[in-house]
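so im writing up the methods section and need the Prepilin-type N-terminal cleavage/methylation domain-containing protein record in one place, dumping it here so i stop losing it
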Amino acid sequence: MMTSMKSRRFKPKKYQPKGITLVEVLVTVTIVSFMILAMLSLYVAGQRYFMTGTAKSDVLRDNRQVLNYVSRDVQEAIQVMPNWDVYTTSTDCLILQVSSIDSNGLIIDIDSQFDYIVYRLNSEYP
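--- predicted struct ---
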């Protein structure tokens, strides 16, 4: 009693890789690197624009503050002096005569005691 055994033929399996190849890793790393580089350059450009805008707004704020001081002093001035000490009023120099005040901000004597404020555009000259 011999049973016939079917002869089994083994089919060769097709090669199916179970991992990823080195080429796939390199391509993925290259693509991801370009994406990171693009995002980083956008971030740097955004920071540059932000810093430039901040600097411009700081300059405008400082200029506005100076103009407010000058405007206040001109409004409080008794008169614009043609000259005082070594200064002469010109297109680059403004001399204002203002009332003297004490440490409490009160006017000392409006008729005889005065202070002078000198504004100059060019600080190289006295």
